[in-house]
Amino acid sequence: EMERALEPIAGSGVSIVFTPHLVPMQRGILSTIYATPTRGTTVDDVYGAFDDMYHDAGFVHRVDAPPHTRWVVGSNNLLASFHLDEESNTLVALSAIDNLVKGAAGQAVQCANIMFGLDEMLGLPREGWMP
């Protein structure tokens, strides 16, 4: 699913490795996603493409440091950061969501809002419980 979504943006086939982490915590999903970018791609290029894609997305935010799940607990937000290992030409994307909001009920509310022509952020928490 992710590869199909990225192919039109990349203009060619995309191959990624997706690693969700299950750790002893009360809630949240931390994902690590690996991709092989076109040679010469910089992390600034990646952040630029991310910003272009999600500049109007109220719940999708970039962070400059690896995200922590506690930063999203109680919110419908997705936080993402990127690191490019130039030696292996591997892009590592890290994302964090609250699986009980963004990953479940909040996602359903967001989709229903869109289906009924409402503001997609209506009735959804924008701020998490922890800083």
TrEMBL record:
Ranges in a coiled coil: none
UniProt-recorded Gene Ontology molecular function terms: N-acetyl-gamma-glutamyl-phosphate reductase activity
Organism encoding this protein: hydrothermal vent metagenome
Pfam family membership, one: Semialdhyde_dhC_1
Span of domain N-acetyl-gamma-glutamyl-phosphate reductase dimerisation: 1-99
Keyword match Oxidoreductase: yes
Xref: PANTHER family: N-ACETYL-GAMMA-GLUTAMYL-PHOSPHATE REDUCTASE, CHLOROPLASTIC-RELATED, N-ACETYL-GAMMA-GLUTAMYL-PHOSPHATE REDUCTASE, CHLOROPLASTIC-RELATED-RELATED
Enzyme class: oxidoreductase
Keyword Transmembrane helix: no
UniProt keyword annotations, A-Z: Oxidoreductase
Protein name: N-acetyl-gamma-glutamyl-phosphate reductase
EC number: 1.2.1.38
